[in-house]
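Hello Y.,

Per our agreement to keep a running log of every chain we model this quarter, I'm adding this entry. I've kept the format consistent with earlier entries: sequence first, then predicted structure.
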Amino acid sequence: MNSVNRLPGANQSLGRPVRFRFDGKEFVGKEGDTLASALLANGVGIVGRSFKLHRPRGLMGSGLEEPNGLVRLETGRFAEPNVRATLVPLYEGLQAFSQNAWPSVQFDCLGALDYAHKLFPASFYYKSMMWPNWGFYEKFVRPIAGLGKAPEGNDAQRYQKRNIHCDILICGGGPAGLSAALEAGRSGAKVVLVDDQESFGGALKSETYLIDGESANAWATRAVNHLSLLPNVTLLPRTTVSGYYENNFVSAVERVTQHLGPKAPLNQPRERLWRIRAEQVILATGSIERPLVFPNNDRPGIMLASAVRSYANRFGIVPGQQVVVATNNDNAYRTVFDLHDLGIKGITVVDTRLKISGSISNELSKRNIKLYQGYGISDAAGSKKLSSIQIARHAGEGLLDNEHLTVACDLLAISSGWTPTIHLFSQAGGKLRYDQPSAALVPESCSQNLAVVGSANGTWALADCIAEGQKTALATLKQLKIEPASTNAVGIVAGEDLGFSIEPYWYTKNRRTDKQWLDFQYDVKVADIELAVRENFVSVEHVKRYTTGGMSVDQGKTSNFNILAILAELCGKPLPNVGTTRFRPPYQPVTMGTFAGPTLGKAYSAWQELPAHAWHVKRGAHFADYGWKRPEYYPRGSENKLEATLREVNTVRKSVGVFDGSPLGKIEVFGPDAGVFLNRMYVNNIESLKVGFARYALMTNENGILIDDGVIVRLEQDRFLVHATSGAAPRVFLAMEECLQNHWPDLQVFVNNVTTQWGNVTVSGPQARAVVQQLESDIDFGAEAFPHMHFRAGTIQGIPVRVLRASFTGEATYEISIPVRYVESLFEAVFEAGQPFGITPYGIEALEMMRTEKGYLHIGGDTDGSTNPIDVGFAKIIEKKQGDFIGRRSLQREADNESSRFQFVGLEAVDPSQLLPVGGHVVDSLTPSIPAKSRGYVTAACLSPTLGRSVGLGIVTNGASRIGEEVYVFARGKTHAARIVSPSHYDPKGEKLNA
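Predicted structure for the entry above:
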């Protein structure tokens, strides 16, 4: 297919023909094209549809600012949605697809929504989708919501992460960034230069300036070649800085092989996440042109003036024959004159200002270019392709006369001024000020070690940008105490500088505002801002969320400033007083694969294997992920999970079993104030604990909510061993460290997490004592010498051990901790000693069933995010305790002591053969109305092989005073009759524990 919009003789800088497909149709572009330029060259006017109203959208920009050209690349495992066509370099065989349209982008059935646009104002869904309920509307909304479709199947590509440190990070490889990099690089400083384009140069690649007698693009190429020879300079093209964090930590995403498509070598990463730590940062991020706001300013064929100039100068593409340039500033005239120099003669200029500079006026006259001075655009015609515009005299402050003229055109280049790209500066915590001469917000101050240069700093003339880059680099080197190299003269810029004189024109006030677009992706219009103000949403952050302006994929790059300015006018405030929204990372969308990097599958989180893992494998253990890779059950022969679990439970209840408790948290707390410290950390009174004794204890957070439990042992007068739960051990340790460092630094206490230093072999059952007594040990395991909830230290076969008598099964239990290198040997010794008693290893499933029978609390399983110690029966313990502890004040609140709270109880099915559904809600009647009010829910349940009936645990409203009451449990459309009982179903008096 011919490149209908490519200018004759304009392909010298481009390479061979490249074939690609868009929406299944084959096209031909040139090597060096972007997907966007290739589509424009082939006359493709519509690339997508808007999010809400499905209006046709054409390309508007030429870089990161592009709000419309979002496409899906490739298919299957190589698919990627929401890619900017302006950032995709063309490669052979590329496949791209339009988004948000059905059945096609040319004819979208949902385009009918545009005719009913008045029914869909800002936040209409909050007001209209209330009756009968959201679920009614959800089935209609879900299929049409979203931008693009998520890929199906696993990503076939690789991703990588790398870290780098540098003296100076320069973000942006335009004229100011290159100038700063040259100065810093020659000095020997370690420099990283990052730019989001395929090659460095920034705006210089699209302009016709001369620098030092050569083209601006050639000057940039020479500068980059020089930098590439410096060993202390790292060049990262095709890399977007996406986030700026504290202490000059910056994240950036490099597109390594994305430009090669599915044919890229699989041994090379597709994208690379750079984590950069810099002493100093120089932001040379440039600026973004703002669109003019007028009725139907979103028609395909309406583009930013800078984008039209870029496509013309870089790619030799002008997507129109009758061109109108509409502006309120001088800079847009560069587009006018560049197009005229390229042979485009049908050019018309519409300028909202009554006065323009004499040099521009003279140049227009010399070129015979028609100018409508003091006119504004009142409308644009053409649904799928721009056909004409209507203009009217500008009466000042956005008001147009009623009489209008029609100007035929198929390309409209618009410019409402320039906005410095301050996203990263804002992320770094920088403050802005309003610059009246350029009608823009520019950087003012920032607490981090950074500087802003070039147009990102409100410096507009090219010569000034280059000079500012050099000057800032010298100042930065001085801060780093690095001697600069001999300073070279700044490049001499030739070419007429038209200046940046501007007269703000924010929107057309006396024309319909429900067709004046601000956010082109999310269909946010001036009328939406007006509605927000009428409804008293006057905070800029509230307006952003109410209208969704600036919240789409482009993060408001072309819309935010216009929204701020219009909000200021509607509120009658000066623009600086309105404030700005806070830009958040990422500046540019980042693929999930890049964040994940190589940490996928098993590499995502390495298995934590037990010290005796090989022993469990030998015994046929079936493993599962419990934070650690732990035995779930030990099947024999053809046993399934339930059969194996029941056998293990029966063996432990009747004889003896052995369990690996190595992941159990073991935190040593020692020092003169160890008792005082633990007394503050835990609900119980720990100071009164005697040496050699153990005590069950609860921990709460500042809000009085349970976060962990465990058994605490007093090893010596100033030394304790805290057994935190397996999953909570790391965070309990960190909580202790935080309290010691930040809250009670005066306490003489040390904490040490020794969980992974000690393995644990737990022997449990009626015959447990008989088994451990056969081990060669200096510990007296007799019932009177070593009762329940006591601790002994000694040796087994000459190896030092710590033995705790505490139980999670309800049977007599010995938890033997031993240095990890001896764990497997101890398992063998225990297993051999238990052979006469039919000892069996048991897994987590059997332990869970036995603790449910016994009624032991499982924090996180039997509690929710509101459960406090009073809810689980600790009210009297709290009353008796003297002194403060974390969460105590919160537990004195009236709400924390109400009888209507969920309280921990036991549950049993009225029909003993019926299993209570875990997660089922306790309700008031056998046939509850839907939705019914929940009075609690079942947290654990089993068909007890020991008791021969269905038992469970749960949290129920005022449960402690409702023992014996019958209730109903509702789940999955069925209701089960149940009875509230004491949590301890098995051995409620604890006789088995003390045997």
